[in-house]
Write a structure and sequence with these properties.
Chain A is built from 18 helices and four strands. By secondary structure, chain A is an all-alpha fold. In chain A, helix 3 (42-68) packs antiparallel against helix 11 (225-251). Chain A starts with a helix and ends in a 5-residue tail after the last helix. The relative contact order of chain A is 0.12. Chain B has two domains: 1-80 and 200-249, Rossmann fold; 81-165, P-loop containing nucleotide triphosphate hydrolases (Rossmann fold). In chain B, strands 6-7-8-3-9-10 form a six-stranded mixed β-sheet, sandwiched between helices. A four-stranded antiparallel β-sheet of chain B has the order 2-1-4-5, covered by helices on one side. The chains are: A mainly alpha, B alpha/beta. At the A-B interface, helix 1, helix 9, helix 10 and helix 11 of A face helix 2, helix 3, helix 4 and helix 5 of B.
């Protein structure tokens, strides 16, 4: 290596840094191993499994959206087809006593996702932007409706089911209990996350970013953006297929909902809320959205409405997602000026919370009168009982909503000022370029 | 001397408007050739045709005696022709280092590789570092290209263009919008980076053109009205009338 290279190029990570990097993955593995010891109930094991599946699916989606700049409305196609094939595979393996253990079966789902991405991707990745989004939507509708028409393969509305315990056993693991499924999902999640992270660090991974930023210029450095998009699409399909396979193994059933628009929408939602600009964004989003959808559906009937509101709020106010919001603070932490914004956050929190409570109250009251107006007006939302017909409650929700908004607006300006001050402080110290 | 670029009866029209009319042009290997002409003469269109961004309506374009007209830009680039853009055209969200590295990858033979760590490619690293220090952006290595100053972006634009090691370089107004001092530095940079290459450059600044070019072609209303050494062009009455005259007036 010449002298210029060593003085000009980014430093090669030192041994200690490399160790730290591998230590991070090891720590993740240990956390995954120990989680069931801390939360051993069947419910939490199921939740963890769902989170793992969602992480793989969301990361696979971000290969398209965040890495390569392709907005897909039909990513569930590869997830769903992976799931269906896996259910069939489990049945075939069980019936013929084939020596394929269950831990290898997700690979069948991945290869299915890959196969369909290879088949459908070449046409849909011709263009990015609106054309790609529309084609993905069309293909999704096509496959979802085929799932209802081709009953012999997809099982119609009921779907098809399988018994995962009938598969060839290795080390006497039956994969009946949820804990064994948890470990299967956790292992595949870790593998898939590592593989997808590694992909971002390859020449292809970087050219995906280049295609996202400027597909025109990519052509003038020797690359065909269509091929880059196509390869990204194939990888994305492969990992989506693995996620679908894990879901099918977890539920022992695959039905048309796996392939549907709701599934495609949910993955977009989770990925975007987590933050498309960072590798860990979709992981954060998957955890957040899985908890939210499990939690909110117990607390209120109209949880999807709140989902939508959260999504709109993120798109409008935090386009970088949760991860983007957190990462914004990194230079402040580095420069030690974080203390200048925190008090303003606390002050802004109170009226903003009041405003949100007012909004929730108003929403629940409106839902009561428009959907259940004949029923008992003593309802419960988010665990709090109240009388939806009581005018004082109406007044209170209005006061909270509008009063909260009025006060909150002022505190938001305050946050803005504190933020400017903290960032300029950080800039002085050279923590921001 | 063998030819690097040859245009034979090239025409380009958009609908009924013909922008390039029967252009014949030969650029010899190793020559620094400037393309001048008034605004709207079709200089950028000609660049778009040569680099494959547009397909000529008639005629053919040859790169080292091979017909390239009709090929997509990336195939022309792989045959050793690289171009810059008049309006800065970089990868805005990626760092300066990443921008240059993307431009090095194909030529280094890595293509669509997804089984190698990009940080473990010594020759890519070395070439990227060399270009980075050549364009004097070492201090700005980790800054997203979108946050660079205008002059820095123009330097990066040239860096991306030459990074792949193409030996035919097309530069579209590389000094546009620069101050006098910046222009001088940019010319120095161009001279250094394109040494041994064939250079075709569109430029408005006459001091740059006459200082840099071995030969000059004048494009007016889509036609080449004169082609020759700087002295011949300076003395050509047709050129004086159509182009230089305006400047003098």
């Amino acid at each position: 290596m010449t002298e210029t290279t060593s003085s000009v190029a980014p430093p090669v990570p030192a041994a200690a840094e490399k160790l730290k990097f591998y230590g991070l993955w090891l720590a993740a593995a240990i956390v995954l191993l120990l989680l069931p010891k801390l939360f051993s109930s069947g419910g939490s094991l199921t939740t963890f499994s769902l989170i793992g599946i969602s992480i793989v699916f969301s990361l696979s989606y971000n290969i398209l959206l965040g890495q390569t700049g392709m907005l897909s409305f039909g990513h569930a196609v590869y997830y769903g087809l992976g799931g269906f094939l896996v259910i069939h595979a489990i049945n075939i393996i069980g019936a013929n006593k084939l020596p394929i253990p269950l831990p290898l079966v997700p690979l069948i789902g991945g290869l299915t996702g890959l196969l369909f991405a290879v088949l459908l991707g070449w046409v849909s990745t011709q263009r990015s932007g609106t054309a790609f989004a529309m084609i993905s939507l069309g293909l999704a509708e096509l496959v979802a409706s085929s799932a209802l028409i081709l009953r012999t393969f997809f099982g119609g509305e009921a779907g098809i089911s399988a018994n995962r315990t009938k598969v060839f056993r290795l080390f006497d693991w039956s994969f009946g209990p949820q804990i064994q499924i948890y470990y299967l999902v956790a292992a595949w999640t870790l593998l898939a996350v590592i593989a997808m992270y590694a992909l971002t660090r390859t020449p292809l991974g970087r050219m995906c970013n280049a295609v996202r930023d400027n597909p025109e210029r990519v052509q003038f450095v020797g690359y065909d953006p269509h091929v880059v998009r196509y390869l990204a699409f194939c990888f994305s399909g492969f990992f989506a297929g693995i996620a679908g396979a894990l879901a099918a193994i977890n539920f022992e059933i695959a039905n048309s909902a796996y392939l549907g628009a709701v599934q495609s929408g949910t993955v977009l939602f989770a990925t975007y809320i987590g933050g498309v600009g960072f590798f860990i964004g979709p992981i954060v989003g998957a955890i957040f959205v899985t908890f939210l959808s499990l939690g909110l559906s117990d607390l209120t009937q109209v949880w999807q409405l709140y989902f939508g509101l959260i999504f709109i709020a993120v798109v409008l106010f935090a386009p970088g997602g949760i991860t983007g919001l957190l990462m914004m603070h990194r230079p402040l932490v580095k420069a030690g000026t974080l203390g200048r914004v925190l008090p303003s956050y606390l002050i802004a929190f109170v009226p903003t919370l009041a405003m949100l409570i007012g909004l929730i109250l108003a929403t629940e009251i409106i839902v009561y009168f428009s959907v259940h107006s004949g029923d008992d007006s003593h309802i419960k939302a988010f665990g709090v009982p109240f009388d939806a017909a009581n005018r004082y409650i109406w007044a209170m929700s209005a006061v909270l909503l509008f009063g909260g908004y009025w006060v909150a607006r002022k505190t938001w300006t305050m946050v803005g000022h504190a933020w400017d001050e903290a960032t300029s402080g950080a800039r002085e110290q050279g923590a921001i370029a | 001397m063998s030819t690097a670029i040859e245009l034979r009866g090239v025409e380009k029209s958009f609908g009924i408007t013909s922008v390039i009319r029967n252009v014949n042009l030969t650029v010899a290997q190793g020559e620094r050739h400037a393309l001048i002409g008034p605004n709207g003469a079709g200089k950028s269109t000609l660049f778009n045709l040569i680099s494959g961004y547009m397909v000529p309506s008639a005629g053919s374009i040859l790169l080292r005696d091979e017909v390239v007209s009709g090929l997509p830009p990336y195939q022309i680039n792989r045959r050793g022709l690289s171009r810059s853009f008049q309006v800065t055209n970089v990868f805005a969200n990626m760092s300066v280092w990443e921008n240059l590295r993307c431009a090095v990858l194909w030529a280094a033979g890595y293509r669509y590789t997804f089984w190698k760590n990009i940080d473990n490619l010594p020759e890519v690293r070395e070439r990227t570092a060399r270009i980075l220090s050549d364009i004097n952006l070492t201090a700005r290595r980790d800054v997203p290209a979108g946050l660079l100053t205008y002059a820095e972006q123009r330097a990066l634009e040239i860096g991306i263009t030459v990074a792949g090691g193409a030996n035919v370089i097309l530069l579209d107004e590389p000094t546009a919008g620069m101050s006098h001092a910046e222009t001088e530095r940019a010319v120095e940079l161009i001279r250094r980076l394109t040494e041994g290459c064939t250079l075709l450059i569109v430029e408005h600044d006459m001091s740059v053109v006459f200082g840099l070019a071995d030969r000059i072609s004048v494009l007016v209303y889509g036609q080449i009205i004169a082609s020759g050494t700087p002295e011949e062009i300076r003395g050509n009455p047709k050129v004086r009338e159509a182009y230089l005259g305006e400047e003098a007036a």
